[in-house]
Amino acid sequence: MASVALQGLSKTYQDPQSGKTVAAVKNLDLDIRDGEFLVLVGPSGCGKSTALRMLAGLEDITGGSILIGSRRVNDIAPGDRNIAMVFQNYALYPHMSVYDNMAFSLKLRRLPGFFGRLTGGEKVKETQAAIDKEVRDAAELLGITQLLDRKPKALSGGQRQRVALGRAIVRHPEVFLMDEPLSNLDAKLRVQTRAELIKLHRRLGVTTVYVTHDQVEAMTMGQRIAVMKDGVLQQCDTPLALYHHPANMFVAGFIGTPSMNFITSKVSLQNGEPVLDAGPFKVQLPHSKASALKSYDGKEVILGIRPEDVHDRALLSTTPHWGDSTIPMQVEVTEAMGARTIVYLRAGQQSVVAEIDADTNAKEGHTLDVSLDTSVVHLFDPQTEAAII
Ligand SMILES: Nc1ncnc2c1ncn2[C@@H]1O[C@H](COP(=O)(O)OP(=O)(O)O)[C@@H](O)[C@H]1O
Ligand SMILES: [Mg+2]
Predict the structure, then answer these.
(1) Closest Cα to atom 8, ligand 1: which residue?
(2) CATH of region 4-254
(3) Under CATH, which number does the domain 261-380 receive?
(4) Residues 200-228: pLDDT tens digits?
(5) For a designed S-S bond to 190, which of 55, 114, 185, 382 qualifies (C-beta 3.0 to 4.6 A apart)?
């Protein structure tokens, strides 16, 4: 096992058609702890795969350094970095059995002359027995022992994914790198495999860098999550820290479904108490926000509030702890999800999404009185989009 450090890592591509340069990864600093499961997440094209491929040694580095443990690996060949990578498309050898797919890299590595004439000396036999044990142990761990003689084409997507994992596990790498390994699985299998990967990580304790564009996957799997946008790291923290303390509007909007509501409003400090004027309604903020908003008096800010913090006033029995201010809003659409209902609301030019208890009486075309939990609102600077703290 090993820690991983990316220091000022950059990658610039030359676009083959236009000849223009594309900065795919910009000055990425990231410290991944020994044994950690870190998820690299962001929208398609933000540079996740490029970062991972540089770490794997599959892509040249334009600038910066990569350390695995204390070893600088910039100029070390992929095969000597002691990492194993699992891809979205599994990359299995189609003509080999599951067993051979898993054993292949071990044979290459440990049986010199594997490609040539292999005489059956004692040493070779010993090595072959050791490889056989590795493969069978990994197959057992992954529950694919009964598939060892099959070819990849006779396997389901989920089974292929296990073989790809098995091939990584037998090598006992210091670091696992996974690039969207679940995206070819159907929704149900994806959720199942997600949990299995986590269990596997708990058992093996191997440092893992896991790439996905899916924020739910990131939230459920990552011990920490690094959020990227346009090649730039936005924030790296635990799932709940990202959820409750997003550093900027991008992270706030990317993490959580439905997305956080953003409401442009004007600040006024009335006798030192912060009030936001959103146009059709006003929001009294807690006194604790006053100092942060001092320099915004008379200016605009973006109010951020998560859908679950927009409440149906009728479902709140007593006066809520954040104070009693009711805002009437038009119900445009309701989506019954079972235990919860997603309600799309409008007040003047402001549209707001609420996620409320299915007991709600919200009806399309009617008015709903809502109460915003102002104790958990977020505030952002409209120019920089950074959180105002
Ligand atoms: N070989 C390449 N040549 C030119 N541009 C590339 C190449 N690979 C990736 N890119 C560009 O770099 C950016 C990041 O790509 P990628 O790392 O694959 O993103 P992600 O994995 O987050 O979807 C994209 O704009 C992509 O078009
Ligand atoms: Mg990718």
Answers:
(1) 50
(2) 3.40.50.300
(3) 2.40.50.140
(4) 999 999 999 999 999 999 999 999 999 99
(5) 185
